[in-house]
Amino acid sequence: MRNCNRASVKSLNRHELFRTFCDLAVQSGEVKMVWIGEVDPAKGALPMKACAGSGTDYLSRISLSIRADEPGGRGPTGTTVREDHPCSVDDVSNDPLAAAWHDLGRQYGRRSSASLPLHEKSSVVGGITLYFGEEELFDVRTRLPLEDFVNDLDLTLDRFAREQDNKTLQVDLRASERQYRQLTESISDVIWSLDPIRFRFLYVSPAIERLRGLKAEEVLQAPLDLCFSPPSLASLRETVAAMVCRVETDGFKATLPRRPDLLQGDTNGERHNVEVIINPVLNELRGRLEIDGGTRDITERKRYQARIDELTLIDELTLFDELTGLPNALQLRQKFNQAIASNRSPIKTLAVLVFDIDNLRLVNEAYGYPVGDILLIAMADRLRAANPSANQVLARFAADTFVVLLPDTDELEAVAQAHALRQRLN
Fold it and tell me: Cβ(397)–Cβ(332) under 8 Å?
């Protein structure tokens, strides 16, 4: 499992992930052959994406499906993907479910098999099938490790999906920014000039019609109160007043352009996020101070950024246990790898404490899951209260298992802390 966890963290793409997991499964010794297929929704097919072990040549010659009305979809893998649950065959050479593979089972010594579904964003996207050299090997002893094995695959597929979503949004955002630059170069931004004393527009470019649905002449005749939301208008007044004061005391050269973000309405009642660039200038013909500015609609940019922030928040939430608020198994593995990487020096040590709640299943069955949840939350709170050190990592590793990482802690000190924590829990 350690190698599988490491592979899930290091894999950069689906192909590398599937190939590595297949190789690791065969290297375990009990698995004779393993293969992973991904669903092709358009064709209802299950093409093989990675495999390892003996006798894999036939996979490229057969048609695998997820449809129950096709022979290639009625086997263990097609069934587990279609019905979204593990499917095991205790005797590959005789079980009717594996009829198409009886001869291959005898030829390559495959006695039993287990098929499990793969998920991405909670939807089935494929399946993995493992063949073993012993009959009835998919039992209590092997089921949990295999489900953990596949859960690592699911978590990594979710990570790939989030990373792809982020990349897509980044590409969209960069494309949007390129579009804004092109609009600026073609003078599509609204260019205007403002009288800072009367606080009225002196000039507005025709591009204002695209932003607000009003012609430039209509905007020139209207007060600024109708152009901006009240908070934005107050912000603009404050910025302009401060700029005028700075010019009067320090001159034009000491005054830098300002870029306030404001809200501006249009004729349809919609609000637009706009970036306003303002700069004080001296109108030599009229002999007065004026404010020249440019307005750019950044509504779409704000939406893209909000979506990126939302995905970032989702990514952070996937690193914490929803019930207890503690770091979950995925974050624990990341912290553990970081601690190992930082403890290269022979004088540094890392201790790991593991706490299990015995008979939690019996509590859930007798009193219901809400009572079991209360017990888990109470244990998390006590462990959290007993671990004040900032460099210690407390995590919920599994349903009834908590783990504490103790950097720079030797064996004697770790034993003492374990006794102290156990005393606190009791």
Answer: yes
Look up residue 94 and give its two tokens: 């005789």
Q: Give residue 65's pLDDT.
A: 84
Residue 79: helix, strand or coil by DSSP? helix
- The per-residue pLDDT for range 266-324, each reduced to its tens digit, is 667 777 788 888 888 888 777 788 888 888 888 888 888 777 777 776 666 778 888 88
pLDDT tens, position by position, 320-360: 888 888 898 888 888 888 888 776 656 578 889 998 888 88
User: Is 404 in contact with 421 (CB distance < 8 Å)?
Assistant: yes
- Reading the block at residue 5, the tokens are 């966890």
**Which position has the token pair 């039993």?**
112
Looking at residue 30, the DSSP 8-state letter turns out to be S
**Strand 190-195 with 200-204, pairing:** antiparallel
How buried is residue 302: exposed, middle or buried, by Cβ count under 10 Å (0-12/13-18/19+)? middle
102 in Cβ contact with 94 (< 8 Å)? yes
Strand order in 87-89's β-sheet? 48-53, 31-38, 123-132, 112-120, 87-89
Helix, strand, coil shares of the chain, percent, nearest 5, are: 50, 25, 30
Spatial separation of the C-alpha atoms in residues 138 and 152, rounded to whole Å: 19
DSSP 293: E
- Residues 336 and 405: beta-carbon distance below 8 Å: yes
For 11, residues 6+ apart whose C-beta sits below 8 A from its C-beta are 17, 20, 156
d(CA 249, CA 382): 62
Domains plus CATH for the chain?
2-150 (3.30.450.40), 187-303 (3.30.450.20), 320-425 (3.30.70.270)
Strands (E), 73-155: 87-89, 112-120, 123-132
Q: Phi/psi of residue 256, each to 5°?
A: -95, 155
Neighbours of 54 (CB within 10 A): 13
